[in-house]
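Q: For a teaching session next week I want to show students how multiple molecules come together into a single three-dimensional assembly. I've collected the sequence lines for a complex. Could you give me the predicted structure tokens for the whole thing so I can convert them for display?
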Amino acid sequence: MMDDELEQLLGRAAAQARDLSFAPLPDDSQLDHPFSELFEKKMEVLCRQQKKRRFNWTRFSRRAAAFAVVSMVGLSVLVLSVDAWRETLFEMVEKKHADYSEILFESKDGSGVLDSQFVLTEHRPAYLPEGYQLTRQWLDASSNDMVFTTPEDKMINFQQAVNAKEGFARSVGINTEGSELVPFDLNGYPGHKMTNGDMQFVLWNDNYYNYMLITQLSMEETIQIAESVTIAPESSYHPPELAVPSYTLQEDYSVNQAMQNGDVVITDGGVQNAGEISSLLAAIDAEEPYIVRITDFTVTAEEARQEQIESFQPGDPVIKELYFDGQRIHYTLDFLRAHSSFGRNGAALEVRQDADGTVRLVLIARTGQQVTVCSYN
Amino acid sequence: MLAAGAWLGSHAEENKFEQLYLAYRQVMFYAANSILKDPAMAEDAVHQAFIRILNHMGKIGEVHCPQTRSFVVIIVRNVAINLYNSRKKQLALSLDELAEWTPDEAASPSDELEAKEGSLHLAQLMARLPDGYRSVLLLKYDNGYSTAEIASMLGLTEENVKKRLQRARKKLQEILEREGVNHI
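A: Of course. Below is the structure for the complete assembly, covering every listed component.
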């Protein structure tokens, strides 16, 4: 038998081999393993973190996707023994897996965790190369995740998290394929650095927090940025946020809830809070960051099908978030009930009026491509 | 109103990930636990498998299709075998495993005549190959991934994947020729 004959035969046989291989596995409907609370928490955080991140990474292309992977692999929850907090040194522990490393920060005597009421004090780099602006930030009582970008789409990601807090601790997953973390001293604290492709990674920790810096700069400059990290001044700039983040919205998000949250609400009866759109347009003109959420209840099944959304019913809420970061406009669509979301970005936003009086909000990409964000009478 | 066609990149992958999780976590646990016989380790394997799957979301098509089910099971079995072997402190795949394998270990075909007919017989042989060889064959010929992609998915070097493919093909070819199987 010739090699190419075998290749063809293998191609024909593969689907049958797959069916034969996995036929003994029962149908999912026959399985009902009660997953542990720890597993559920770890997966919930993985899913939530990924969903949360979608508002950030949309405008970054393939290169930046590697950043997203790093961060999506990121936070997971580990239940630790609860103990009174006491100051102790933490150390970085690297657990090597096949294609990534899991980084944990563990107290050296195994008992040190922060009290559940501990609130993170925001840190940030005091030094950044010219042209970088803070365009995204997620800040809560346990973690701080900042993204700095340039108009040319270069990016710096700085992450800070408590080492361990009552009930959970953070671990970080980073792609260490073909590379390895090298220990070094950073301002007297234990640090690790790694170059992977054109990206630089620097990780370090003190007694309260662990930090990670990812850049596409030189390692020398990345370390310079890391060394400059300090407590954020009170007057520090923070990007605008919605009072109720979109990733927390439930499938049954209603008109009343949307109104209460200050969304622009579009129903068959017209538009409410349309002034927010005017405020966004004014902010874009003034090159000031601004964020608006439009909740649209008028999307049709046909329009949903065009977006390859199945299981959509007319009247379902569709979340449309528009965020101007001072450089460009991020547009995120979220079909809540279909559990599908899309990210796009644009350079300009225009309000147009059709002959029949319909008002359309149009997002325009750098390439000139256009998409209607919403329309109303 | 929405306009058709996404530009500047769709991010449906995020929700596809959740759909994958809801659709396959049970069967993935079952597959992992059948290797590890340890529910806690099997859950760990499922979690690790999902982290690995995250790296390859862009290569996954439909969520609910046999190829995707096969893909996630292959990944979780690979993770589980690695966990099992690390527990046993053994090599992930013995080089002798394929040499020792004979078609006698394959299923007895229910219909001997039909089984002798080309692809079905080959499919039965493939289905009974040692896991490490069967996985790379399926990922290549059923899912259509490149050797580099398979290497990344299974935590192997490209060279290792090529060797496994080469050895599996050679073994299958020898058996088919010895048995004079009609492969037309």
